[in-house]
TrEMBL record:
Native organism: Acinetobacter tianfuensis
UniProtKB keywords: ATP-binding, Cell membrane, Kinase, Membrane, Nucleotide-binding, Phosphate transport, Phosphoprotein, Transferase, Transmembrane, Transmembrane helix, Transport, Two-component regulatory system
Protein name: Phosphate regulon sensor protein PhoR
Domain called Histidine kinase: residue spans: 231-447
Lineage: superkingdom: Bacteria
Top-level taxonomy: Bacteria, Pseudomonadati, Pseudomonadota, Gammaproteobacteria, Moraxellales
UniProt key word Transmembrane: yes
Length: 452
């Protein structure tokens, strides 16, 4: 009779079993059965009870198989992580494969646990607060930085996040993540005169990952910049008004020397440009300081579009463009009519200014049932795609000389961006050099008011 093979501690020690077919192990059982039948045949022929001993041989083989089955079941049920019993044939192969699969699973589990431990250690070491929130809005885990920045305590585990961070702005952001793609800046409830930037990300359905970091220094610098711009803009307004008045007085004199008249005309043009810059800076400051003012007027879009179209015709006198108006939406807008009219007008005048004479400018208002879209398309000089991501930055110019010629301040699209942000809208720009541009203002469904 053959010796049973040992059960390996490591799968790699017996690679020959890994690639053996089931027939290899079945032959061991068949050889054992053949051995029992041979012995039974010899004894049965000798004493005259051949079939009885054949039956006994089958019974003994069957009992051995039942014993092996019992040992397999006992190991799986009671000692699955111990070394399996030594068995022959098919049952031995089964035990070997199960044991090898278990060891591989334990190795994978150990690697996963190690990876999770390393990730958790990394999160613990971060200066940024990290909080895991489950589908029920309950806090599952946080790192030490969350205790310092957000004031979490051990008793807060399992509590609803909205019962701890109760600022109305955070609750609104939590329920409408798309409202602020860049996150939310709010005052710290733990550290006095400190501000934190909070960013929420959905994962695994309705679970959320909250990341927060201290932005107090950035906030203070931003506030200093705003205060400086506000103050300098207000201080410049009075002298500019005085200069503009005197220059206009001198320019209107009939006996003025032509050489001086040219100089005064240039001074007057530059004074107007500076006055436009100051007005734009003050408008930007006002928009930034009035973020929380409700934008809930119902704006009749056909009326506004026709007004913009008439204003565009008046501005277009010196350019001679073909102006088109397209309205295929039955939705009105909810927002501030003055701010949106200013933003739309800015886009239209830009299209007219930067389109060579005799071009075409098309103004449109559309919707697809889910979003509203105000569009301005031109056949102008276009913009190199590399400039598109920075067009809405303050004072960013694609061509400084061209902007000076057209009287631009570099703040128009920055103002448009701020107006749109306060209406949960955004600007999309498609353009190629010498092929024209398409400016699209996209409004969410919540800003649309369907006319009955």
């Amino acid at each position: 009779m053959y010796e049973p093979y040992p059960v390996p501690e490591l799968a790699s020690e017996h690679k020959k079993f890994r690639y053996s077919s089931l027939w290899t192990f079945a032959k061991q059982d068949l050889r054992l059965l053949a051995f029992f039948l041979l012995i039974a045949s010899l004894i049965g022929f000798g004493i005259g009870y051949f079939w009885i001993f054949i039956g006994i041989a089958f019974a003994v083989f069957f009992l051995l198989q039942l014993r092996s089955l019992y040992l397999v079941n006992d190991w799986i049920s009671n000692r699955p992580y111990d070394v399996p019993p030594n068995l022959n044939g098919i049952w031995g192969a089964l035990l070997f494969n199960v044991y090898r699969a278990q060891r591989q699973e334990r190795i994978v589990q150990a690697e996963m646990v190690g990876l999770i431990d390393r990730a958790q250690s990394s999160l613990v070491a971060l200066a940024e607060a990290v909080v895991l929130i489950d589908e029920m809005h309950q806090i599952e885990w946080w790192n030490p930085a969350a205790q310092q920045l957000l004031g979490f305590q051990e008793l807060d585990r399992g509590r609803n996040i909205l019962t701890i961070l109760r600022q109305p702005s955070f609750i609104e952001y939590f329920n409408n993540l798309n409202m602020a793609p860049d996150g939310l800046k709010m005052k710290s409830s733990v550290l006095e005169d400190h501000y934190v930037q909070v960013k929420l990300t959905r994962f695994g359905g309705e679970s959320r990952l909250l990341v927060a970091y201290d932005v107090t220094r950035m906030h203070n610098l931003e506030q200093m910049r705003k205060d400086f711009v506000d103050n300098i803009s207000h201080e410049l307004r009075t002298p500019l008004t005085v200069l503009s008045g005197y220059i206009e007085t001198f320019t209107d004199q009939e006996d003025l020397n032509p050489r001086w008249k040219r100089a005064f005309d240039q001074m007057q043009a530059q004074t107007r440009r500076m006055n436009a810059l100051v007005n734009d800076l003050l408008l930007l400051s006002r928009l930034e300081n009035e973020k929380k003012i409700a934008k809930n007027q119902i704006i009749e879009m056909p009326s506004l579009m026709n007004q913009l179209y008439d204003d565009a015709h008046a501005y277009n006198v010196d350019y001679g463009h073909t102006l088109n108006l397209e309205i295929d939406s039955h939705c009105d807008l909810i927002g501030s009519d003055i701010e949106l009219a200013s933003a739309f007008s800015n886009l239209i005048t830009n299209a007219i200014k930067y389109t060579p004479k005799g071009g075409t400018v098309t103004i449109g208002w559309h919707d697809d049932g889910e979003q509203g879209c105000f569009t301005v398309q031109d056949t102008g000089i276009g913009i190199d795609p590399k400039h598109l991501p920075r067009l809405t930055e303050r004072f960013y110019r694609v061509d400084s000389a061209r902007s000076r010629q057209t009287g631009g301040t570099g703040l128009g699209l920055a103002i448009v961006k701020h107006v749109l942000m306060q209406h949960q809208a955004y600007l999309e720009i498609e353009s190629k050099e010498n092929q024209g541009s398409l400016f699209k203002v996209i409004f969410p469904k919540e800003r649309l008011y369907r006319v009955s």
